[in-house]
Amino acid sequence: MMYDPPPERPSESDCCGNGCAECVFDVYDRECARWRRRRRTGRGDGLRRDLLSATKCTPYRIVSARPLGHDDVHAYTFAATPAARGRLPIAYSQHVHVRLADGLDRPYTPVAVADDGCSFDVLVKAHPGGRFTGRLLAMSVDDVVGVRGPYGGVRYDGYDSAVMFAGGTGVAAFVGLIRNALDDDKCETLLRLHYSCKTLDGVLMRKELADCAAYWNCAVHLYLTREHDWSQRSKSFWYNENITEGRISQDCVAKIVDKQQDLKTLWLICGNDEFNRYVFDSLVDHNIKRDDIRLLNNSTKDFEVS
């Protein structure tokens, strides 16, 4: 089977005509250049690029969908259809677009990618009255959606440390990245995750984060903004969990930045637009260079990082 076919050219209707900063035809040109380079160098990697395209939607079926029990967050697994084996060409911290039959789509960052089943997992936050999530939650196992991507992604090589700020489901952008780094025996990058949630019950993938924090080069800090009975709730903390009452304040950011002064640090942010802007502005106020900041989720058109 041909695992690395040339990218499929988008149709004229795939372009919205709004002068996007990165038009679908720009993506196509870039993917063609990468494909030609792989063919020229012969550096194949066995990834199933025939099952995922940055320029066209590919059918994926819903394998499972389950509520996580807090804040209306659901865990979804999507798999290529028909069933296939291999690994999808998704690097951690990249995102894909999930599209429904009526054309609505939303970006999601996979938190896990199967090595032998051509499937991936995402976390979906159901917003009250949300058009997309309302339709998605009404679908059933084996129903089919379209998937396009992957896009974006960050590289942390060349940095002494990576400091990550996550709000709510934004933590999904970092779990895979952290796991991937910890699985690499040669990686000595220090990993620091600062994760803001409303309550302890709202901490997504708490067990996975605790497992990551057991490694020498990974630390996880949780910030709980709406816990009312702190003295009672603190009895539910796990051993060695680092938990702070309240938001990621300016004082918190100042202390975090101060600890990184002697390190070449990559600063990563992923949350809603309000969270992103707050953390970004706080870092800039503390003299962090914009070139060292990456925003993994940004739908505010007038908010530019660099």
UniProtKB/TrEMBL annotation:
The protein's name in its UniProt record? FAD-binding FR-type domain-containing protein
Report which superkingdom the organism of origin falls in.
Answer: Eukaryota
PROSITE patterns the record matches: FAD_FR
Enumerate the InterPro entries for this protein.
CBR-like (IPR001834), Cbr1-like_FAD-bd_dom (IPR008333), FAD-bd_FR_type (IPR017927), FNR_nucleotide-bd (IPR039261), Oxidoreductase-like_N (IPR019180), OxRdtase_FAD/NAD-bd (IPR001433), Riboflavin_synthase-like_b-brl (IPR017938)
Transmembrane regions? none
Task: Name the lineage.
Answer: Eukaryota, Metazoa, Ecdysozoa, Arthropoda, Hexapoda
GO molecular function per UniProt = oxidoreductase activity
Cofactor dependency: FAD
Q: Which keywords has UniProt assigned to this entry?
A: FAD, Flavoprotein, Oxidoreductase
Q: Which residues form the FAD-binding FR-type domain?
A: 55-157
Chain positions recorded as FAD binding sites: R106, P107, Y108, L123, K125
Which family is this sequence assigned to? Answer: Belongs to the flavoprotein pyridine nucleotide cytochrome reductase family.
